[in-house]
Write a structure and sequence with these properties.
The chain is mainly alpha-helical. About 75% of the residues lie in helices and about 0% in strands. Helix 5 runs antiparallel to helix 12.
């Protein structure tokens, strides 16, 4: 019983310290009152590269990675993180200059400026919102609650933990805006990464650094055709999945667009890429492999079981606090970006041009919380949370990326042509996912992307009678062009 008291005391103590440090940092920050959208959703452009890197890292790194990827209990899943480094470089060198030159608050705002049509901005925002509501928000709540229940061996309904996470995350998102989210991300990330590396060391020590009894297919980085990640998928859809996620996904890019300058933002993104290259791959696969040797194939319970067995009481309380913070920061990041998409792209364009941003954001955030909680039970039946999330993400990822590709590379494309293509692409991939998947879903993502781009250009030419032209390199960023300076 004493051990439980130590765990609980450390857990709440560290959580309180993170909250206090976040409050103190945000209280002393210089705020811009001239543009409420920029202040609330982009921290007034005041995030230094340290907080950009910290927020990007912890927004992505949560229990759906630690629990889900370790739950596969094989080294192969490290490729997701290694490929992410390329995605972050593409964000820094290609997309960020475009967003900054066009003074964007949301990634979808760029589409309105490129196509000259607010409707395409709204359509893509709705797709992002649906993905956040139906896929990411509930999956984060589920995986975080599962980890805490498994680690502490709690005999309670998982929904109680999900509700606690949801309420705490909503408070950060509603009352603090992006500034509080990014700052808490960074402080939490320092603890989470440090203890996660320690878990790797302790787990290997527990088996005397001997992986000889682990099946070869669990240790290889060359995936076979029947593995979750066949080697040839790295040559097809993987790079486009990473480009979509890191460069067009509002939840991630919002952090990079909140720096005072483009250069500061790029420094933060490169730092995040370095963390992902040097630290993240080992912490999301090695504990799972060790758990396979110790416990067998136990799926998504592997990480929580291992951490609960290896860490002493006070340290497990510290790690639990870091995990809880990771869940909260990912969850409130999704809430904040979803509120930004709704407020900037839908409400202000179609309902009220000058709303009270903080009040409106609070209302829609509570609605998003209710929906995500209602969907948590759906994810309890998943065999692998990370594989399910990746497959469902494909419903919108490649259709959305096709709109950005067509919009950035071509002039004189009708917005309705791209809208038709993205809707068709979503339905097409839904058919592949739920009816007929002839080859691996990552290959089908690339095929879906190619079909969407081709269909948009075909409809533009033969239905709307407009001939697409390569975007002129000498146009300025002010009229929405993809200039040579933008790609430099």
């Amino acid at each position: 019983m004493q051990l439980d008291i130590v765990q609980i005391g450390v857990f709440f103590g560290v959580s309180a310290i993170i909250g206090l440090l976040t409050y103190l940092k945000c209280r002393t920050a210089t705020r811009s009152e001239n543009d409420s959208n920029k202040e609330y959703f982009l921290a007034g452009g005041g995030l230094s590269w340290v907080f950009v890197a910290g927020s990007i890292t912890l927004t992505n790194l949560s229990t759906d990675q630690l629990v889900g990827m370790n739950g596969n209990q094989m080294a192969l899943l490290a490729w997701w993180e290694l490929a992410a480094v390329v995605g972050l470089i593409i964000l820094a060198k290609i997309f960020l200059p475009v967003y900054y030159n066009n003074n964007c608050t949301t990634t979808t705002e760029l589409l309105e400026k490129r196509y000259g049509d607010k409707n395409i901005r709204a359509v893509i925002s709705v797709l992002f919102l649906l993905a956040n509501l139906l896929i990411f928000l509930p999956s984060v709540l589920y995986s975080g609650s599962l980890f805490m229940k498994t680690m502490f061996q709690l005999d309670i309904n998982l929904m109680y933990l999900a509700v606690a996470f949801a309420m705490a995350g909503a408070c950060y998102a509603v009352f603090g805006g992006l500034r509080a989210v990014a700052v808490s991300d960074t402080y939490s990330g320092i603890i989470l990464l440090s203890v996660s590396v320690l878990v790797v060391y302790l787990s290997l020590s527990a088996i005397d650094f001997d992986l000889s009894d682990v099946p070869a297919e669990r240790l290889t980085l060359i995936g076979g055709n029947d593995s979750p990640l066949p080697w040839h998928t790295l040559l097809t859809g993987m790079i486009f999945i990473q480009t979509f996620y890191w460069s067009t996904n509002q939840t991630i890019t919002q952090r990079a667009m909140a720096a005072p300058t483009l250069g500061e933002a790029q420094k933060g993104v490169f730092a995040a890429a370095g963390i992902r290259l040097l630290i993240v791959p080992c912490i999301i696969v090695i504990p799972g492999i060790v758990a396979f040797k110790l416990y067998g194939d136990i799926g998504d319970e592997a990480y929580g079981q291992l951490v609960g067995d290896l860490l002493p009481g006070w340290l497990s309380g510290l790690f639990a606090a870091a995990i809880a913070a990771a869940v909260l920061t990912t969850y409130n990041s999704l809430l904040n970006s979803s509120a930004a998409l709704y407020t900037c792209d839908i409400h202000e364009n179609y309902i009220n041009e000058n709303p009270n941003v903080k009040t409106l954001s609070g209302v829609v955030t509570l609605l998003f919380v209710a929906v995500s909680l209602a969907l948590v039970p759906v994810y309890q039946g998943a065999d692998s949370i990370i594989n399910l999330v990746q497959e469902l993400w494909g419903l919108v990822s490649m259709p959305i990326l096709s709109v950005f590709i067509v919009g950035l590379l071509f002039d004189n494309v009708k917005a309705n042509a791209a809208i038709i293509a993205v809707i068709f692409g979503t339905l097409l991939y839904a058919f592949f996912t739920f009816v007929w998947m002839p080859i691996h879903y990552i290959h089908m993502m690339l095929i879906t992307l190619i079909i969407c781009v081709g269909l948009a250009l075909f409809i533009n030419r033969f239905v709307f009678g407009q001939r697409a032209q390569w975007a002129a390199a000498n146009k300025t960023a002010s009229n929405g062009a993809f200039s040579q300076e933008s790609v430099g």
